[in-house]
Amino acid sequence: MTNLTLEAACCQCQHYLLAKKRENCSESNIALCDNWLTRWREFLKEGFSESLGDLTLAHGRRFSDHLHGIGERFVSHPCADPKEGGLSCHTIHQAIRILRSLGSWLSRNEYIETHVFQDLELPQLKKRVIEVLTEDEIRAILTSIDGATVLGARDYALVVLGLDTGILQGEMCGLRLRAVDWDRRLMKVNGKGDKERIVPLGALAEAALRWYVDIYCPQPYYSDEN
């Protein structure tokens, strides 16, 4: 099936996105893939008239060069205004990874004979060192929260929970009381791709959660989601 036209290849991109949904990829991840694949198809339409089977590594490298040459960021972004300046290495890295993933999927499903983008180079990312908060900074944050109010008790519990467990923002937002094992001081969180993991709960975090739940939130607003 390597003689597909570009128009037919566009349909395969949609099948690829459906496959990502079946893999339980998050909606934001699927939207990101859709955005970059749309830009990839638009790039091909400017000078690519061959069949899908004629794709080569050179096409991927030309697309990479095209991304490096873009002089404006946030074009058509739903939440940010366009700004001058090229795309960041992180953004280009993201786009190339998605293109390589598409190439792998096309190859596995025999739409192309080989994974032509397997050797497509990824831009080197700068390794950033995350600076941790000092004890004085942590103390200042916690003492600034009024734990004697509903919102203060909630915020205090969330801050302590984040400091104690290191769970991600999305995992914290999706946390439900039924996922907390109070006896064993464990809780189940859902991360990216709907992946579950068990996280230990420290004594301070447990006390903060119990204070909020028992004193300020004895009955959850949605009883079936507690």
Structure description:
The chain is mainly alpha-helical and 226 residues long. It has helices at 6-22, 27-45, 57-68, 89-108, 135-143, 150-165, 169-173, 203-216, and strands at 72-73, 83-84, 180-181, 186-190, 196-200. Helix 6 (150-165) runs antiparallel to helix 8.
Briefly summarize what is shown.
Helix content is 50%, strand content 7%.
Shape: elongated
Order of helices and strands: HHHEEHHHHEEEH
**Cα end-to-end separation:** 50 Å
User: What's the total count of β strands?
Assistant: 5
Question: Count of DSSP helices?
Answer: 8
Oligomer: single chain
Structurally, the number of domains stands at: 2
Please name the CATH topology of the largest domain.
DNA polymerase, domain 1
Query: What's the CATH class of the largest domain, please?
Result: Mainly Alpha
- The unreliable regions are 221-226
Helicity level? 40-55%
Structural class category: mainly alpha
Portion in strands: 5-15%
Kindly report the spatial arrangement of strands forming the biggest sheet. 3-4-5
- Per CATH, which architecture of the largest domain? Orthogonal Bundle
Mean pLDDT figure: 83
Largest sheet: 3 strands, antiparallel
From the alpha carbons, calculate the radius of gyration and give it in angstroms. 24 Å
